[in-house]
Amino acid sequence: MSKPFIAKVPYEASHPTGLAVYCSDGRFTNAVEELARHLGHERIDTLTIPGGPGLLNRWSADYLESDMITRAANFLIRGHHIQEVFLLAHAGCGYYQTRHGALGAEFVAEQQLKDLQAAAEELRKTHPGLTVHTYFVRPQGTKITFEPLS
Ligand SMILES: [Zn+2]
């Protein structure tokens, strides 16, 4: 039997109070955690799926996908007493390319912003008192920029 690996990061029994909903795309994972730390969240719950918060917009996403991620988000927000949610869409998202790519980059970016807005509205409506932040994430050279949306 091989030896177990023991992480240096300690286990903390309390749940984080922040939840980030974003794309599975691993090029952004560390940066999203860094943003969360910058905003005072040492640890976060995460809900990652290709397309991220775009799937929370039941008007544009596939019904079953949308239903699943909406239930998952509601479960985490209620069960883990989440107070702050970060919804992040990123430039060059493969999910959006596959789904809407034929309609051009401008259409895709617009759809991403619409989806972020719809997702934020839906969460705010379902969970009064919840703070929801939306960001468009853009790689620029070797930097990753988070543009907050109003
Ligand atoms: Zn993506």
UniProtKB/TrEMBL annotation:
Name of one Pfam family that matches: Pro_CA_2
InterPro entries in the record: Pro_CA_2
Top-level taxon: Bacteria
UniProt protein name: Carbonic anhydrase
Organism, as annotated: Hyalangium minutum
Lineage start: Bacteria, Pseudomonadati, Myxococcota, Myxococcia, Myxococcales
